[in-house]
Amino acid sequence: MEHEELVRILDCINKIPRKMLHIQNYDNVTEFVLHELCHTRCFDIGKAAYFVDNPDFDLLKGVAGYARPEAYAGDDVWDNPSQFTAHMQGAPFNQKVRRFHHASMRKNKESDDAIVDLISHELDLKKPRYYSWDMKHDNHGLFVYEKTCKGDECVDYVKDGLCLLGFCPVF
After folding, report:
1. At 4, is the secondary structure helix, strand, or coil?
2. Which of 40, 39, 45 is nearest to 145 (CA)?
3. Are 167 and 133 in contact (CB under 8 A)?
4. Cα(24)–Cα(6) distance, rounded to whole angstroms?
5. Tens digit of pLDDT for each residue in 95-152?
6. Could you say which of 38, 44, 58, 136 has the lowest number of CB atoms within 10 Å?
7. Residue 106 to residues 39, 145, 170: CA-CA distances in angstroms?
8. Are 17 and 117 in contact (CB under 8 A)?
9. pLDDT by residue (tens digit) across 30-46?
């Protein structure tokens, strides 16, 4: 990874918490963060879906989805939160992700690979990759995506950026 690209990605990640505070009264903060992380100015991911697995409620829930062809056309999602929110309510891939409900993979001791296969089939993700991580309250985050970044050099930065999703409310 080139130095300039690394600086650009880290700058993007660094600014997200401040931006999150400006829209804290919106229920869809996760969509804003996911859109920012997937944008070409950050991780440059063409299609991605974020899920939260809650073993206590035996639920794996789709929280937000991003598909570049359906991406917000405005300059910056953070500049007009109401317009972005309305756009995401009409984005078919995002809505398909949000309708996804499945029994908890953690509670039922399913492997990440098995649930990613199910998700990728249901969401038509080609050659899916994923990251998973532990979150507060014994929840578990799962990010499934179609990889577009070159090589595996962005792995640590992606994981660090994705952890920001854990600070977003889930509705």
Report:
1. helix
2. 45
3. no
4. 28
5. 999 999 999 998 989 888 999 999 999 999 998 999 998 888 889 999 999 876 554 4
6. 136
7. 30, 20, 18
8. no
9. 999 999 999 988 888 99
Burial label, 21 (beta-carbon count in 10 A; 0-12, 13-18, 19+): exposed
The pLDDT assigned to 151 comes to 47
Provide the edge-to-edge strand list for the sheet that holds 140-146: 101-102, 59-67, 47-54, 140-146, 128-134
Confidence of residue 163 (pLDDT cuts 50, 70, 90): low
Rounded to 5°, angle at Cα 47 from 114 and 138: 50
d(CA 53, CA 152): 26
Cα 146–Cα 150–Cα 155 angle in degrees, nearest 5: 75
Residue extents of the structural domains in the chain: 3-167
The answer to whether the beta carbons of residues 132 and 143 sit under 8 Å apart is yes
Q: How confident is the model at residue 164 (pLDDT cuts 50, 70, 90)?
A: low
User: Would you tell me which CATH number, out of the four given (3.30.450, 2.30.30, 3.40.91, 3.90.550), belongs to the domain 3-167?
Assistant: 3.30.450
